[in-house]
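quick q for whoever's on today - can somebody do inverse folding on this one?? i tried earlier but teh output was garbage lol. tokens:
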């Protein structure tokens, strides 16, 4: 049986991201978010309207999405608080500038994506940046010999909760390939496998 819950927010498992951006006061800065999705060479991220990150990304029209792992959760939380401050310095985050965007690629993150803003949509006190992906870089430890992502070794932090309690969750060691649950693989092209 299901019950209606009274909450203004519901996080049903989103990866935590660190958004890097150009900041004229600190050169570069970072903020934490869990509002993103990617399709092909497009990515959308959501940030609170009128925040330091939102204002600067609107101004410069570029940013990076960086996927942290649980070993740097303290840095993730510092980046999520202290609005308008030098959060890269406060969290002692090391970085290199992007190759195609003027925003930081965070060294301690397992994956980073360089993004150019294509559209901006404001709704309900949040700004959604729809961007084209210019480059993806991944930590070598999660890339196989053929240059492909080792998905079973990729271990991001997930954000779950409501307006009353929010928690971080992590993957367990169990994984399955696409199609395993119905008896076929992504490579199959039979009548029952699409």
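ok took a stab at it. sequence:
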């Amino acid at each position: 049986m299901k019950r209606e819950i009274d909450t203004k927010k519901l996080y049903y498992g989103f990866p935590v991201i660190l958004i890097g951006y150009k900041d004229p006061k600190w050169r570069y800065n970072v903020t934490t978010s869990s509002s993103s999705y990617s399709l092909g060479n497009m990515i959308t991220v959501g940030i609170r309207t009128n925040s330091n990150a939102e204002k600067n990304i609107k101004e410069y029209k570029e940013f990076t999405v960086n996927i942290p792992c649980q070993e740097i959760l303290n840095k993730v939380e510092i980046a999520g608080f202290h609005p308008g401050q030098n959060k890269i310095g406060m969290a002692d985050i090391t970085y290199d500038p992007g190759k195609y965007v003027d925003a930081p690629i965070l060294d301690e993150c397992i994956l980073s994506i360089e993004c150019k803003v294509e559209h901006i949509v404001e709704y309900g006190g949040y700004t959604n940046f729809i961007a084209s992906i210019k480059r993806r870089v991944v930590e070598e430890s999660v890339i196989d010999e053929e240059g492909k992502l080792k998905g079973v070794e990729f271990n991001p932090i997930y954000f779950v909760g409501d307006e009353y309690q929010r928690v971080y969750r992590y993957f367990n060691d169990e994984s399955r390939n696409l199609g395993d649950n119905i008896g076929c693989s992504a490579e199959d092209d039979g009548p029952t496998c699409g």
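fwiw The longest strand covers residues 111-123. also The mean pLDDT is 91. so keep that in mind when u check it
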